Amino acid sequence: MDDPRLTPARPDLAAKYLEGKVKAARFVAGEEFEIAEAIAPLRIGPSADAELATQALLGERVTIYDRNDEGFAWGQLKSDGYVGWLPDRALAKPKGQPTHKVIALRTFAFPGPSIKLPPAETLPMAALVTAVREDDTFVMTREGWYLPRPHLGGLDEMADDFVAVAERFVGTPYLWGGKSSFGIDCSGLLQVSLNAAGTGCPRDSDMQRDGLGRLLGLAEARELQRGDLLFWRGHVAIARDAETLVHANAHHMATVIENTRDAIARIKAAGSEVRAIKRLG
What we know:
Elements: E1 14-15, E2 27-28, E3 31-35, E4 39-43, E5 52-57, E6 61-67, E7 72-77, E8 83-87, E9 91-92, E10 100-102, E11 106-109, E12 121-124, E13 128-129, E14 131-134, E15 138-141, E16 146-148, E17 152-154, H1 162-168, E18 179-180, E19 183-184, H2 186-196, H3 205-211, E20 214-216, E21 229-232, E22 235-239, E23 244-249, E24 254-259, H4 260-269, E25 276-279
Parallel strand pairs: 1-2
Antiparallel strand pairs: 3-6, 3-9, 4-5, 6-7, 7-8, 10-13, 10-17, 11-12, 14-15, 15-16, 18-19, 20-25, 21-22, 21-25, 22-23, 23-24
């Protein structure tokens, strides 16, 4: 059965590229948009109180297949293929290609070339912007924002160590479906960190368990290396070394560094055993 999280298909409507593969009353080609808000919620239903599935960040592309009269649009993110409902207000027609991405945890967008001005917006790591002018201090974007030059990198700039990226999120509040330093979940932390290092990554922990790395024996939890991934049912953590891990979790309601044996014992006491250990590369 096709995963509904990654398959833009409903009984009444489906993406044109799925014609002949799924059943639907009609098939549509869809229309490409870009995310025009710093962070846009992608929900499982067309309602502001529907469960948050994930988030789309400024500059991301999305193919929209349906819109309703209540201000929601149904589509598929280009970055990781996730399907869901976005607020219409967060969508704009693409205006050229992005030139830079935010590499700081978050950065302020100033309305002029001065850090003393009240910020017009706050952008998260991995937000994409299009520069129209830059110097050693600021990058000016097409919106007229001035972003601190040290907080931006080129689209091909990659972090050397994805674990170090994850460690930067320590203290970030836990948010189901979140993928920014304003709030993040376990699989969002892994996805954002791997993406920052140039590695593609599915969105949810079960997809990550099935799609990333090679399987190690569970006994090898005693010999973990930096960057190994530990999976439980509905949870993932990143090994920092043989003894500690970093993960966003609802127990601490934050991203924390924790002793690996303590974490395994605590999660086991709560009713869940380690299901897989994966090694990248």
